[in-house]
Amino acid sequence: MQTQKVPLSPPTLREIAVALQFPLAANYSHSTVDVVQCPDLRKAPFYLATAGLSGAEKISDVGGQPNLFPTPRLDCKWNLLDIARAMEMAPHGGGLLGAGAGPFHIVGHNCELVPNIAWNDGFENATNSTYLAQIRQGEPSVEKSPSLDCALMINLYGSLGHSGPVIKITARGRVGDEKSITELMRKALANAYGDRMVSLGGVFAVKKGTSKYHIMPDFPPEEELPFKNAKQLNDWLTYHEFEAPVVCLSVLHSADPGKKLGLRMEHTHCASMDGRDVGGHYHGDINGEEVEYEGYFNVAKTLYRIEKPEVTLERDLHE
Description:
Elements: E1 3-7, H1 13-27, E2 28-37, E3 58-63, E4 77-79, H2 80-86, E5 93-101, H3 104-107, E6 112-114, E7 116-120, E8 126-128, E9 131-136, E10 139-144, E11 149-159, E12 165-174, H4 181-193, E13 199-208, E14 210-215, H5 230-236, E15 238-243, E16 246-253, E17 266-271, E18 279-285, E19 292-299, E20 302-306
Parallel strand pairs: 3-20
Antiparallel strand pairs: 1-20, 2-12, 3-11, 4-11, 5-6, 5-7, 5-11, 6-9, 7-8, 9-10, 12-19, 13-16, 13-19, 14-15, 14-18, 16-17, 17-18
Helix pairs in contact: 1-4
GO molecular function: hydrolase activity, acting on ester bonds; zinc ion binding
Subunit structure: Monomer.
Pfam families: DUF1907
């Protein structure tokens, strides 16, 4: 896999927490940002495949939105464990989480992927807790993924999965204009650190309220391609409002200096853990006064840009 390795020199978790405190406080009636010992994230409400987010912390950006626009590149398919190897992750144990496009070639439909895997004593002993969100017969459908494959684009946070210090964020009652808590965090870090790249990965629960999500439908027929512009592509997506509780896995970056890496700056995918057909790409809350979040994040020490498309976009297509 074509891979570019970028060592990072991130601020401390305490410094990052301080940078996030005021923006969160300005956007929510109540918020906290602390550095804490990570709880066991395998338990409710998060159900991660790993207990924690610590140890050899890494982030990857694989493929990208240009693989969808103007025409989907159906040859762009990867296995999550192959990506783990490209990220130089330890075979004796670790995990990946994040957001990407699902294995259409396995399930028979284009879909959103909520990757959540772990392994012990070798990659061959992987636990797959990944979910898919797709449109079936015109309605959202969310289920466990039968595969460790992904396609087109994916953003991943990887670690040894150990417990350790993490940034804990809580927020409720939005009073500001920023509906997406992860976009708020990304902007806060960009304002604090400028061109210094700070890359976070983690999990948060939407504990209360209603939020907006999109789910990609199946690929358009050939006669409707290529997509002519971003508006046409965004109109092709299906949009949904889902009630909490929902678990969201997220990767975000404060900067891509000179846009040299063609990074997806923020990517968050979600799924309900209670059997409802609720999930997809997170956009933000609908009823701000009711929304409530709890999340845990860690900072990456290394970034891997894998299978970068030849053409990159000036901005994210999915706004």
